[in-house]
Amino acid sequence: MLLAVGRIGRPHGIKGEVTVEVLTDDPDTRFAPGASLVTDPIDVGPLVVVSAGRSGSITTLHFAGFDDRTAAESLRGTILNIEAAGLPELSDPDDFYDRDLIGLSALDPSGVELGVVTAILHAPAAPVLTVT
Questions:
Q1: How do residues 90-108 score in pLDDT, each as one tens digit?
Q2: Phi and psi torsions of 23, nearest 5°
Q3: Contacts of 59 by beta carbon, 8 Å cutoff, 6+ apart
């Protein structure tokens, strides 16, 4: 199972860097130089991190083989994933991984079941649960 850790935004500069919306609590590990990330869409990757940085509050990444602004633009909207196997168990009962929501019942505020969570889509504004 894959776990989303970021979404690529616009290019940053002219040397292939991109901005990234961080979807992980451990970006230093997930985006460390040499890290290989599975992509959605799958045919874009895998992407290998060459360098990571910050520009104010913005996280930037540079990937191997994407060395100019045009190449970086082709990555816009790509979701960055890691394999969920091997991630540590969470000690706080209020913490969860996205994958933990799959299979749970979705209820409306009055407690009526709407269906079961079948997927999590990382939409531009906020994650969206697919309930069937």
A1: 888 888 877 788 899 999 9
A2: -120, 25
A3: 6, 19, 20, 22, 27, 31, 52, 53
